[in-house]
Amino acid sequence: MLNQLTFQWPNIYEIRRKWLLKKAPYGPMRDFLSTPFQSSYTSIYDSSVLAVDFETTGLNAKKDKLLSVGFVELDHSQIQLASCYHQIIKTEGDLSADNVVIHQITDDVKAQGLELNTVIEHLLKILAGKVMLVHFSRIEKQFLSKACIDLYGIAPVFPIIDTLVIAKKRLDKKSIAYDPSQLRLSNLREQHHLPTHYAHNALNDAIATAELFLAQVNQFQLGDAEKLKSVLI
Fold it and tell me: 232 has which bridge partners?
């Protein structure tokens, strides 16, 4: 009878990482892909996670731009506030009035930001070997992939935990209709009795997502639900 470990390693993320590493140009992308991912059988409570949030000019990664990046590390289920990072990105073009109202980032502020390559290089350096934690993964996944393609010619693979997906799975199991607005970050935080946070700031939203994830983890049962594989998308 085959040992259970046969099915645990290598996982799909590692297979893809090793394949991309052969193609990656020297520099930040190769450095990122040179670091092995954590096993999907690692306990959630022992895992190394980076909560990430992007503020963008829109929802279409093909035509819209990254405005800012915020992240904070979670280590052994503890938010490491000393690791907080927030950076405005210097992008081309003028911002619309809606962008300024929503994100409180003006053209003058944007002009003082860092270049995209500098910000993405730093993000990849910190993200290496960690699981990326987000709320509504389509935004972070698509915009980071697009930035990496533009900068390095390839998009990386990265294990992702999505707090929206975790909440949706739990609601779907109840087999009753629900309002999709229940899956918004602010509404989920309220459901978990977490305080109101100042939204549309990349660092604030990253911290808010990290807090929500820890509240969700609190509801997990013992057994396989403690493993990363139960929450990776």
Answer: 161
